[in-house]
């Protein structure tokens, strides 16, 4: 497996969204954007979203470990306890099973808690509560109890966090009936999506990514909401449809720059809604390009890509010219060693290779 | 159990003078989430009453075989507990009203209600493989709650014929309900998709044969 360390940062090229392309250098990331408005970081955007919704609606509350006095482990709830008090920004002890159940019980009586898992991997301890009580309660009570919780937290492979703190729980949660999975990726969509998630009557599991908290971008105002079931078209193209989400969006965009130089024209779609899939956008794109590559951070076995690949296979078989290619993480616990960690997840060079393989060679335009 | 803590938390959040009662059996008293909920309830003084229905068996395992300390009302550590005879209606009434006053003033409290289970735990449990029939019969004759109330009423001059009439009425009510349930129509197929989501817009559910089905929200089950 060829390991590459990407050197300097690359400027992002889109004029629709301003975002930073992320690289895996040890020197840290530079943020270079060309927008006129004041840039904020993703954690600030999420914080603004929570702040605005808590102000509008007194039933919104936050529960989690270290969200109050510590300021939030990723600063997403920084300072909120001073404004709203300890009851509304609740510092819980380390008992995920317990406080997730408590949050769901509170939601049953009309509160709208935002339960934070300090790391998505910790929510495995609360899996029973999320599956049985959060997902199924509405159905099993015949519509009598609603659980409008938002379960949010950072997941994904970070910088040498180790195996247990680098888990991608999208693949485990996707089978639970009754929940919606949403993955944010940019500053703008993270704020808008979190606001919609808090307003939604359904239980939403909101996936953030550890490495994306410090990216800079523009965020919308207090009235900007985004649909929780629609995918985002990141780059329009004609050769191949690349479906991705969360941090892999940046990996794909980095690969896209290289591909453009080689003459390819990939279409990049950020799934956003991991359950249910936005089949409208997906089928439109597949019918146009007739080739699909799914780039995800989940494991190869049973990830979001596996589900999506099966769905595309079943519904859009006659619109495909090539089998669906899935680029996912290796089925191994994430190593601590930097190079091995980089080898478990998808790198931009792999995306470039995959596109070249799927689309075929292009004549170099002189 | 944490769900009950959440209900009580919502009352405290809204500053309502209500309590929540969360119930579990002696088998579930060994669950970790109970202690997590106890810790949080005591920490934030949540108005919750933890009720342990101790019927001495966790399905097939007797109390002395699954719990090191079978005084469940003492297992709250820093949370006070009361034990009462669950088969005595009036005792239960008293202890719960006391517990409510306590919970509203001081915080969580545990009640252990001593009771018994005649039949098996569920449809698949015959109820006789782990205990003797003598034990079941002894409990039924000595401690049956309805018999006890009946004896109390008769001893205090209540009319025996009235009691017999009440007995008959209740039996008829139950029989009628059973007949109605047996005669009720089988739910139609499309009810399978009802109420999966509270706000089902755009949340197409994929069917096994590849098509899509839009779930709907209909808590009255009108159609």
TrEMBL record, chain A:
SUPFAM superfamilies with a match to the protein in the record? Thiamin diphosphate-binding fold (THDP-binding), TK C-terminal domain-like
Q: Annotated Gene Ontology MF terms?
A: pyruvate dehydrogenase (acetyl-transferring) activity
Q: Which reaction does it catalyse?
A: N(6)-[(R)-lipoyl]-L-lysyl-[protein] + pyruvate + H(+) = N(6)-[(R)-S(8)-acetyldihydrolipoyl]-L-lysyl-[protein] + CO2
Coiled-coil zones: none
Q: Which cofactor does it need?
A: thiamine diphosphate
In this chain, the stretch annotated as Disordered covers 1-35
Per the record, the domain of life is: Eukaryota
Record-listed E.C. numbers: 1.2.4.1
Transketolase-like pyrimidine-binding domain mapped to chain residues: 40-215
Q: Which SMART domains match?
A: Transket_pyr (SM00861)
Q: Which Gene3D superfamilies match?
A: 3.40.50.920, 3.40.50.970
An example Pfam family from this entry, by short name, is: Transket_pyr
Which UniProt keywords are given for this protein, alphabetically ordered?
Oxidoreductase, Thiamine pyrophosphate
The record's listing under PANTHER family reads: PYRUVATE DEHYDROGENASE E1 COMPONENT BETA SUBUNIT, PYRUVATE DEHYDROGENASE E1 COMPONENT SUBUNIT BETA
Question: NCBIfam families, alphabetically?
Answer: PRK09212.1
Function of the protein: The pyruvate dehydrogenase complex catalyzes the overall conversion of pyruvate to acetyl-CoA and CO(2). It contains multiple copies of three enzymatic components: pyruvate dehydrogenase (E1), dihydrolipoamide acetyltransferase (E2) and lipoamide dehydrogenase (E3).
Write down what this protein is called.
pyruvate dehydrogenase (acetyl-transferring)
UniProtKB/TrEMBL annotation, chain B:
Q: Which UniProt keywords apply?
A: Oxidoreductase, Thiamine pyrophosphate
Question: Which residues are in the Dehydrogenase E1 component domain?
Answer: 2-187
InterPro entries, per the entry = DH_E1, PDH_E1_Alpha_Subunit, THDP-binding
Q: Which cofactor does it need?
A: thiamine diphosphate
According to the record, the residues making up region (Disordered) are 204-223
List the GO biological process terms. Answer: pyruvate decarboxylation to acetyl-CoA
The protein's superkingdom reads: Eukaryota
One GO molecular-function entry = pyruvate dehydrogenase (acetyl-transferring) activity
Q: Which residues form the signal peptide?
A: none
For whether the record's keyword set contains Oxidoreductase, the answer is yes
Please report the name of this protein according to its UniProt entry: Dehydrogenase E1 component domain-containing protein
């Amino acid at each position: 497996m060829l390991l590459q360390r990407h050197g300097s940062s690359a400027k992002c090229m889109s004029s629709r969204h301003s975002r930073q392309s992320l690289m895996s250098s040890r020197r840290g990331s530079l943020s270079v954007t060309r927008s006129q408005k004041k840039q904020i970081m993703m954690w600030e955007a999420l914080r603004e979203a929570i702040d605005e919704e808590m102000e509008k609606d007194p039933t919104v509350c936050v529960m989690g470990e270290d969200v109050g006095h510590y300021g939030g482990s990723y600063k997403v709830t920084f300072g909120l306890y001073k404004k709203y008090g300890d009851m509304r920004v609740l510092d819980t002890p380390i008992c995920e099973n317990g406080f997730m159940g408590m949050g769901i019980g509170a939601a049953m009586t009309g509160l709208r808690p935002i339960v934070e898992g300090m790391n998505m991997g910790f929510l495995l301890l609360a899996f029973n509560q999320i599956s049985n009580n959060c997902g199924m309660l509405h159905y099993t009570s015949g519509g009598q109890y609603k659980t409008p919780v938002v379960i949010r937290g950072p997941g994904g492979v970070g910088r040498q966090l180790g195996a247990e703190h680098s888990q991608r729980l999208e693949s485990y949660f996707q089978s639970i009936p009754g929940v919606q999975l949403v993955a944010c990726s940019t500053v703008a969509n993270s704020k808008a999506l979190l606001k919609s998630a808090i307003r939604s009557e359904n239980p939403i599991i909101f996936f953030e990514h550890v490495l994306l908290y410090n990216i800079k971008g523009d965020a919308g105002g207090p009235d900007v909401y985004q649909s929780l079931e629609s995918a985002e078209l990141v780059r329009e193209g004609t050769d191949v449809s690349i479906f991705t989400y969360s941090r892999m969006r940046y990996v794909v965009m980095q690969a896209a720059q290289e591909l453009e130089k080689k003459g390819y024209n990939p279409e990049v779609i950020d799934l956003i809604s991991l359950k249910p899939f936005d089949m409208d956008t997906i089928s439109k794109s597949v019918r146009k390009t007739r080739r699909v590559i799914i780039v995800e951070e989940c494991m190869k076995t049973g990830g979001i890509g596996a589900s999506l690949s099966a769905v595309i296979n079943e519904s859009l078989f006659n619109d495909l010219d090539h089998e669906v290619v899935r680029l996912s993480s290796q089925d191994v616990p994430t190593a601590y060693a930097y190079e091995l960690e980089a080898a478990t997840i998808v790198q931009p060079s792999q995306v470039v290779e995959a596109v070249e393989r799927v689309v075929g060679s292009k004549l170099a335009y002189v | 159990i944490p769900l009950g803590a959440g209900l009580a938390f919502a009352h405290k959040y809204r500053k309502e003078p209500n309590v929540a009662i969360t119930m579990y059996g002696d088998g579930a008293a060994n669950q970790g989430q109970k202690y997590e909920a106890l810790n949080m309830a005591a920490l934030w003084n949540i108005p919750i009453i933890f009720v342990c229905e101790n019927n001495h068996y966790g399905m097939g395992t007797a109390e002395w075989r699954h719990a090191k300390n079978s005084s469940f009302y003492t297992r709250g550590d820093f949370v006070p507990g009361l034990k009462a005879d669950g088969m005595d209606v009036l005792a239960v009434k008293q202890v719960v009203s006391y517990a409510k006053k306590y919970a509203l003033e001081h915080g969580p409290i545990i009640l252990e209600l001593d009771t018994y289970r005649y039949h098996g735990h569920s449809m698949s449990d015959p109820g006789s493989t782990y205990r003797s029939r003598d034990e079941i019969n002894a409990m039924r004759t000595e401690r049956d709650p309805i018999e006890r109330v009946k004896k109390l009423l008769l001893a205090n001059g209540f009319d025996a014929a009235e009691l017999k009439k009440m007995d008959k009425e209740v039996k008829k009510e139950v029989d009628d309900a059973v007949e109605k349930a047996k005669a009720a129509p089988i739910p139609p197929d499309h009810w399978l998709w009802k109420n999966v989501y509270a706000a089902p817009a755009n949340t197409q559910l994929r069917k096994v044969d590849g098509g899509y089905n839009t779930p709907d929200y209909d808590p009255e089950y009108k159609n």
